[in-house]
Design a protein that fits this description.
Radius of gyration: 20 Å
Shape: globular
CATH architecture: 4-Layer Sandwich
Helix content: 25-40%
CATH topology: Metallo-beta-lactamase, Chain A
Structural class: alpha/beta
Number of strands: 14
Distance between the termini: 66 Å
CATH superfamily: Ribonuclease Z/Hydroxyacylglutathione hydrolase-like
Order of helices and strands: HEEEEHEHHEHHEEEEEHEHHHEE
Number of domains: 1
Strand order of the largest sheet: 1-2-3-4-5-6-7
Length: 323
């Protein structure tokens, strides 16, 4: 152990979090620019939480780590997004490292193997008034999803990370399959993209099966609040020490936008695209999908709590304040 950790401490891309947990920051060519992967030490080798993007840069960093003499026992994934799962198949094939994902994540992987996500998003955006969006910000490559996980876990399962047992918590919202991992004695939680330190994670609709992701997202916050958490390890950015405060900040940001949206459709019906332009762009053209996706998920939530009502006209969905 000592020699292995000594080698790890000498690598510039590695940051020590605790005596047995290390952070590896990998580049991402969009959004948050980087992704956090965590190495949790155990007597049989490290457990890796998330792998980063499928990219030459990511492979080179992991190859350097493997070349330093560290042994990886297994990979455990928080969710199936490309910046978290991207190199799982590569690890499995090149290093014979077993990969574990939730049963829900495996279901989502199967969907992405069809490579029709971009078409779904374009169709969704058109329904909500955006005709100028023709392709996603990122190329989605179904290649990374064509593998069989070595094991699956469910909500409430105990899962071994390193030498310790963590509770697997299903926390949907950012993705349908998102999981956190909680260690009660250490009061530590690996929170993936559920909670980030500087920005509010995007709440996504990724298929016709995603009914009300923002409602699920708020419910996931309540699930986390029932645990005592002193330190949270997020999928991007800095470690979070006051997780309950950060969740309330994120929730307040959503409530602020929800109020703006209700006011925007008080006097006339509008599409999500029109409201997105008014709130975020002040009439400017939409630059990317993130803000429109946030507006769509918030309108769905607002309608579910009776604040607005939707109406479909000529194939487009319009919203107005509920009578």
């Amino acid at each position: 152990m000592n020699k292995c950790l000594e080698n790890l401490n000498q690598l510039s891309m590695v940051t020590k979090i605790t005596e047995d947990i290390y952070l590896v920051s990998l580049p991402v060519p969009f959004g948050m620019v980087q992704v956090n992967c965590f190495l949790i030490w155990g007597t049989n080798g490290f457990t890796v939480i998330d792998t980063g993007m499928y990219s030459k840069e990511g492979m080179e960093i992991w190859e350097k780590l493997m070349g330093s003499g560290i042994k990886i026992e297994k990979i455990v994934l928080t969710h199936y997004h490309i910046d978290h799962l991207g190199l799982a198949r590569w690890f499995q094939e090149k290093y014979k490292v077993p990969v574990y994902i939730s049963a829900i994540g495996y279901r989502e992987m199967k969907k992405r193997q069809k490579d029709d996500y971009a078409d779904y998003v374009i169709s969704l955006f058109k329904q909500h008034g955006c005709l100028e969006y023709s392709k996603p910000e990122t190329k989605f490559d179904s290649y990374i999803y064509h593998f069989e996980p070595d094991g699956l876990f469910e909500d409430g399962d105990g899962i071994k990370l390193g030498d310790e047992i963590y509770e697997a918590l299903w926390t949907p919202g950012h993705s349908a399959d998102h999981f956190c991992f909680y260690h009660q004695e250490k009061q530590m939680m690996i929170v993936g993209d559920l909670i980030l330190d500087k920005i509010s994670p995007i709440v996504l609709i990724e298929s016709q099966h995603d009914v009300n992701p923002l409602k699920e997202y708020f419910a996931s916050f309540e699930k986390v609040k029932k645990r005592s958490v002193s330190i949270a390890l997020p999928g991007h950015g800095n470690v979070i020490e006051n997780v309950n405060k950060r969740m309330e900040e994120i929730r307040a940001g959503h409530y602020h936008r929800l109020e703006e949206m209700v006011n925007a459709v008080k006097d006339e019906r509008k599409t999500s695209f029109t409201v997105t332009q008014e709130i975020y762009g002040k009439g400017k053209a939409l630059k990317g999908p993130t803000q429109l996706m946030a507006t769509i998920t918030r309108f769905i939530y607002l309608e579910s709590i009776g604040k607005v009502r939707s109406e479909r006209i000529n194939g487009n969905i319009y919203y107005r304040v509920a009578e």
